[in-house]
Amino acid sequence: MSDLSKARLRLWLRLLKVSRRIEGDLRERLREGHRTTLPRFDVLAALSRAGTAMRMSDLSGELRVSNGNVTGLVDRLEAEGLVARLAAEGDRRATLVRLTAEGRAHFDTLATAHEAWVSRALGGLNAEDVTEMMRLLGRATGEGNERGAA
Amino acid sequence: MSDLSKARLRLWLRLLKVSRRIEGDLRERLREGHRTTLPRFDVLAALSRAGTAMRMSDLSGELRVSNGNVTGLVDRLEAEGLVARLAAEGDRRATLVRLTAEGRAHFDTLATAHEAWVSRALGGLNAEDVTEMMRLLGRATGEGNERGAA
DNA sequence: GATTTTTACTTCAGACCTGAAATATTTTTA
DNA sequence: TAAAAATATTTCAGGTCTGAAGTAAAAATC
Predict the structure, then answer these.
(1) Could A119 and B18 be called an inter-chain contact, meaning their C-beta atoms sit closer than 8 Å?
(2) Is pLDDT above 70 for A142?
(3) CB-based contact (8 Å) between A122 and chain B?
(4) Tell me, what's the pLDDT at B146?
(5) DSSP of A34-47, one letter per residue?
(6) What's the number of CA atoms in the CB half-sphere (13 Å) around residue B7?
(7) How many CA atoms are closer than 13 Å to the CA of B23, on its beta-carbon side?
């Protein structure tokens, strides 16, 4: 294996360590301060970003989790009254999910705190660092790595 | 919220998306090609890196997962014959975990493939990019972000 | 040295997550 | 249009993960 390959592996391990640390921090704050969980928050955030009702499969794609998982998450959020399922016009296979008024209010509270937590977790990066890292992350998995076999 | 705060939040979302994509890719390859899972691989990798037997709590800290989780993972790996538990000299509370010969051979096979997969997933980054990103990640969560309240 | 506190691990309930199989519906194809 | 293929979702088994509670042993304190 090349030196570059080994360097990329070390980078991956560091990336994983950083993201696990931040995820753990967010999870703890959501639990302690708001009696909720990160996956639930992620669903609400996706719905809020979309600004409209989403299909189950759109949620699944956006959050990069399986369909079965979304079913369970939406079940729980629905039981909590934060989201509602509704029929999709013209396609009886699909189900739409939207925020309830309560869900929207709940999310707005969380979102403010969440942004502050994340900003603090990445507090070592100034505006220039952030720009540079966005560029590198975009490049990391962009085009040009499709050739070759598994 | 400041622009910097919002930029950091966008960075976090992109970071998460990239790492989830790579994790999903690795998980699928481990399952399809080697009938195993990423958490199991992670445990073997930690033991291999350490080069010696590790305590359960060391594994837990290294992998950033809970103690209870490590108990279950080691249970399963032990049942597969890939790791073994042994008593810790001089401390009857602790349990050491080590790779078996079979576990080491299994891991060596996986590790080669794993390095290639990761390198390919980060194929858009050259040596200079990797160095720069390592630096930024180190800075992101390093010192200097401990002040202020929750 | 006895009591208290801390440490190491396991167990447990409950949530999360995956991939495969099942169900229902829509679209495509013959 | 009937059959086949594709799509959207749910259900399921099994693994992963957390935090809290429980057990046992070691260390600190009195």
Answers:
(1) no
(2) no
(3) yes
(4) 41
(5) HS--HHHHHHHHHH
(6) 15
(7) 17
